[in-house]
Amino acid sequence: MEPALVAAPENVTEAADVMRVAAENGLAVVPRGAETRLDWGAPPERCDLLVDTHRLDGLIEHAAGDLVAKVEAGLPMDRLAEKLAERGQRLALDVPLPGSTVGGTIATGAAGPLRSLYGTPRNLVIGLTIVRADGQIARSGGKVVKNVAGYDLGRLFSGSFGTLGLIVDATFRLHPVPAATAYVVCAVNGPEDAYDAVQTVLHCAVAPSAVEYIGHIGPGTVAVLLEGVPEGVAARARQTAELLGENAEIRETAPDGWGRYPDGTTLIDLSAPPPALRDLLTLLGPDIAVSWSGSGHGHVGLPAESTPDEVADVLGRLREALGRHRGGAVVRYTPEEVRGEIDLWGPIPALALMRRVKDQFDPDHRLSPGRFAGGI
User: Fold this and answer.
1) Hey, CA dihedral for 230, 236, 239, 244, is it positive or negative?
2) In the chain, N or C terminus with fewer CB closer than 10 Å?
């Protein structure tokens, strides 16, 4: 889908002017950050105007004493991390795709294994500035963590895929950079070993910041992240290693694949309670890459040679297995020849409510039309 026009506003006023003119001319608008997730979801039905946010890349305010930062949507997450680290603080979100922007991370609701303790963008956004489809500026929340006045745009826009408005800036709740970290890594063989290792860590007193399974069916790795003061982390790491057995080792750095999407040309996003891991691993083949966090969220990567029928078969089995745990599977990206043959989103009980929200925020359906579930 090739846009007819591209606009790159430098501030919220310019962004509002762009959206107002687009409304006056009936243009379909698609926001773009760094294009790291532009292939997620369905292609838009129309794209008259592409709004590029790369010039909205400033750290507006860092109130270190309040553990709060206000940043523009086009700022890359890795650059934000560098700026916050100068004051010993961080935004506790993993960055599976280097170069991802703040706005794109919120719009796709992206998070990694740290979500087990710190949550996802919808949990860490405490204020949001957006431009509505008609060019009006709307703000929600504020600079204080306990501020809950007004409509909670942060939660609503997290995972909205640009279908409700243009994100201009966000205010985040921050956390201190831990004084010490350690990874306890344990090799496992098969679904039972992986399930037992993850459950052992989740039900012990070591208080991990994140737990992740990385690998394929058969050999894989369970990794545990521990954070805190040096003495406490060292003791908890030893305790975790003892719990996981003789295959466990303590490392200073993360194992390969930690917090990254598994390899493959089709990426499937999974969600279900943590006990679903055993069923998940049991039904997949040996050439399928998997990552699964202790929060009950993970990803499956299918190899490049997978046919549309093979992708549809794996997707159907995943949805059936995870459905028994009240979970689901959503295809984030896949080759074009596969995309048209499968249901990317699966069953969505709240679809009728989502359509009403879309009608309220974008009555003409001009914002990323058709990109989200149910053609929203």
Assistant:
1) negative
2) N
Report phi then psi at 25, rounded to 5: -105, 5
Contact residues for 14 (Cβ-Cβ < 8 A; gap 6+): none
The secondary structure element, H or E, covering residue 251 is: strand 248-251
Closest residue by Cα to residue 198 from 227, 234, 172, 224: 224
- Residues 363-373 as b/e (b if ≥16 CB within 10 A, e otherwise) read eebbbbbbbbb
Rama region for 145: left / alpha / beta (φ>0; ψ in -120 to 50; rest): alpha
Q: Which parts of the chain sit beneath pLDDT 50?
A: 144-149
CA–CA distances in Å: residue 371 to residues 162, 265, 353: 8, 19, 17
Predicted local confidence at residue 217, as pLDDT? 65
> CA 373 to CA 146: how far, in whole Å?
32
Calpha distance 110→77 (Å, rounded): 12
Phi and psi at 122, nearest 5°, equal -65, -20
DSSP 272-319: --TTHHHHHHHHS-TT-EEEEETTTEEEEEE-TT--HHHHHHHHHHHH
Task: Give tens-digit pLDDT for 55-94.
Answer: 999 999 999 999 999 999 999 999 999 999 999 999 999 9
* pLDDT at 149 (0 to 100): 47
Phi and psi, residue 53, nearest 5°: -100, 10
Supply the pLDDT for residue 145. 45
Q: What is the pLDDT of residues 359-373, one digit of tens each?
A: 999 999 999 999 999
